[in-house]
């Protein structure tokens, strides 16, 4: 195995470690958010992204990037959340092709109720992951000092 092969193996191992940490955290979040608030992780991510707009709304393309989804998956998700009265779509006055999305009062309330659960589970999952030798270094890199 040459130097080039070693670099490929190191990157691959880094990616596997990152994926393992992501899966551990996402699984914990999914279980807690579903059980306590009836939300999936990606639904929470959308509500969270919209909650950070401080009274503004987001274009669908921005929301897709924030949730790491394709445009079609974002459209389907927004439709489901709109059906639950958690958000609404608004046509852009300047560009009729543009569609904005914003939280409804019910969406704001659900986000406010779910946010502490998300934060607590994330903290707990990072603490657990920090005790796994293979994940310890990555947890240290992603968690603020004193958080894990």
Mind explaining what this structure looks like?
The protein has 148 residues and is mainly alpha-helical. Helix content is 70%, strand content 8%. The protein is built from six helices and three strands. The chain has helices at residues 3-37, 41-51, 60-67, 71-83, 105-130, 133-142, and strands at 58-59, 87-91, 99-103. It has a three-stranded antiparallel beta sheet. The two termini are 36 Å apart. The mean pLDDT is 89.
How many runs of DSSP E, i.e. beta strands?
A: 3
Helices and strands, in order, run as HHEHHEEHH
Number of helices in the DSSP assignment: 6
- The helix content is 55-70%
User: Proportion of β residues?
Assistant: 5-15%
In what order do the strands lie side by side in the largest sheet?
Answer: 1-3-2
Based on CA atoms alone, the radius of gyration comes out at: 19 Å
Broad structural category = mainly alpha
Overall morphology: globular
Residue-averaged pLDDT: 89
Contiguous low-pLDDT stretches (5 residues minimum) are none
Largest sheet: 3 strands, antiparallel
In whole angstroms, how far apart are the ends? 36 Å
Q: Layout of SSEs?
A:
Elements: H1 3-37, H2 41-51, E1 58-59, H3 60-67, H4 71-83, E2 87-91, E3 99-103, H5 105-130, H6 133-142
Antiparallel strand pairs: 1-3, 2-3
Quick overview:
With 148 residues, this protein is mainly α. Helices cover 70% and strands 8% of the residues. Strands 1-3-2 form a three-stranded antiparallel sheet.
Index terms:
mainly alpha; 3 strands
């Amino acid at each position: 195995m040459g130097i080039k092969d070693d670099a490929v193996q190191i990157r691959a191992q880094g990616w596997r470690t990152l994926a393992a940490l992501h899966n551990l955290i996402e699984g914990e979040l999914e279980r807690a958010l579903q059980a306590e608030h009836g939300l999936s992780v990606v639904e929470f991510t959308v509500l969270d992204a919209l909650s950070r707009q401080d009274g503004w709304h987001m274009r669908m393309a921005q929301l897709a990037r924030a949730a790491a989804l394709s445009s079609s998956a974002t459209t389907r998700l927004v439709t489901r959340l709109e059906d639950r009265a958690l958000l609404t779509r608004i046509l852009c006055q300047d560009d009729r092709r543009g569609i904005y999305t914003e939280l409804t009062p019910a969406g704001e309330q659900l986000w406010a109720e779910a946010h502490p659960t998300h934060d607590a589970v994330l903290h707990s999952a990072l603490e657990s992951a920090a005790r796994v030798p293979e994940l310890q270094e990555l947890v240290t890199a992603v968690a603020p000092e004193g958080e894990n």
